[in-house]
Amino acid sequence: MKLAVVILNWNGKKLLEQFLPSVIQHSNNADIYVADNASTDNSVAFVKTTFPTIKIIQNSKNEGFAKGYNDALKSVDADIFCLVNSDVEVTPSWLLPVIKTFKENANTAIIQPKILDFKNKEYFEYAGAAGGFIDKYGYPYCRGRIFETLEKDHGQFNDTSEIFWATGACLFIRSNVFKHLKGFDEYFFAHMEEIDLSWRAKNLGYSIKYVGKSEIYHVGAATLKNTNPKKTYLNFRNSLIALTKNANGFILGKIFVRLILDGIAGIKFLFDLQPKHTFAILKAHVNFYFHLNRVLAQRKSIKNKIKYYSRTSIVFDYFVNKKTKYNSL
Predict the structure, then answer these.
(1) Is residue 317 situated within a structural domain?
(2) How distant, in Å, are the alpha carbons of 101, 114, 116, 148, 303 from that of 129?
(3) Do 109 and 208 form a contact (C-beta atoms < 8 A)?
(4) Contact present, 287 and 241 (Cβ < 8 Å)
(5) H or E stretch including 160?
(6) Which of 239, 268, 283, 299 has the largest CB neighbor count within 10 A?
(7) How many Cα atoms sit within 13 Å of 314 on the Cβ side?
């Protein structure tokens, strides 16, 4: 089983300098690539000089996470693609449990490892934690992380478990499945594209797993900070698109409830004196309406839509019922 570890880079020389050595040290049975999105910070020259064994793929433009990987992976020959953020530190033998799971489970298309916080290694990290799920209205949450609440790692998620989506911070996917799905939806640009990809794989009947024996440490928000309104815009817009494209059942009712909940979030940002985030949500909705016909056409093309949620509203569970840990749901 041929494995390729592919790190998408955009002006991340400092991150590569800090984190690439751990990937090289602990990935002896994989080919390692840096796919560069037209960086201007001398990243490519640095990698070529410092890490001459690394294979370089140079994209002509920075067109985001989704298209950046779609373009780069056309040049990668492997059975399994491992997509890793440039701000990730890996651990010894991180690849072995994942490869074993792929070999033992032919229908498993996507896997993610345990994601711990690089800055506070006893806790799960926001982007993926111990595997992702969504509620009826498309809001994502994870084992080990619900909204802003991160759980301490007590070994409670050291299992191998079926999940709904795997994080783009470190996502393993069979290359034939990635190609069959035609990769990421490039309109997403960045954020939530891995949820959409996972959802489309689920709708085709594939299994997605979390493998807790594989651990990595993720800095998170190294490229786009959580305080940046652009991140709010992309998260809200792309989550709406993913829901509309992929959800089974009566979609208009779900969108209506979702828009109300988003509106409440926008009001909360105002009360928190963060009006730029309120306007980011409004902008996300306007963009969503503007492209609704295209999204509905994509929805029509997806023939099989599975039931995708076990929680009706994670928003209600968290903010009203005060259920802040996954095992309390």
Answers:
(1) no
(2) 19, 6, 7, 12, 31
(3) yes
(4) no
(5) strand 160-162
(6) 239
(7) 22
Domain that holds residue 290: 229-305
Q: What 3-state class would DSSP assign to 318?
A: helix
Cα 324 to chain centroid, rounded: 21
Strands 108-117, 207-218: pairing kind: parallel
- In tens, the pLDDT along 185-219 reads 999 999 999 999 999 999 999 999 999 999 999 99
Judge if 246 and 175 occupy the same domain: no
DSSP helix/strand/coil, 328: helix
With contact defined as beta carbons under 8 Å apart, do 126 and 157 qualify? no
Strand partners, 37: 59
Same domain, 244 and 212: no
Q: Do residues 150 and 39 both lie within one domain? A: yes
Structural domains of the chain, count:
2
Q: At what angle do helices 275-290 and 251-271 cross, to 10 degrees?
A: 160
Pure H helices in the chain:
13-25, 43-50, 64-73, 96-104, 175-180, 193-203, 229-246, 251-271, 275-290, 292-301, 314-319
Contacts of 8 by beta carbon, 8 Å cutoff, 6+ apart: 35, 37, 65, 68, 69, 72, 83, 85, 86
C-alpha neighbours within 13 Å on the C-beta side of residue 258? 26
Distance CA 173, CA 84 (A): 12
Tokens of 219: 């800095």
pTM of the model: 0.95
pLDDT tens across 126-171, in order? 999 999 999 999 999 999 999 999 999 999 999 999 999 999 999 9
Q: Which residues pair with 161 in a beta bridge?
A: 210
Is residue 41 in some structural domain? yes
Closest by CA to 235, choosing from 272, 276, 285, is 285
Residue type, 167: T
Residue 17: strand, helix, or coil: helix
Quickly count: other Cβ atoms within 10 Å of residue 187's Cβ.
18
> Using CA atoms, how far apart are residues 134 and 143, in angstroms rounded to an integer?
11
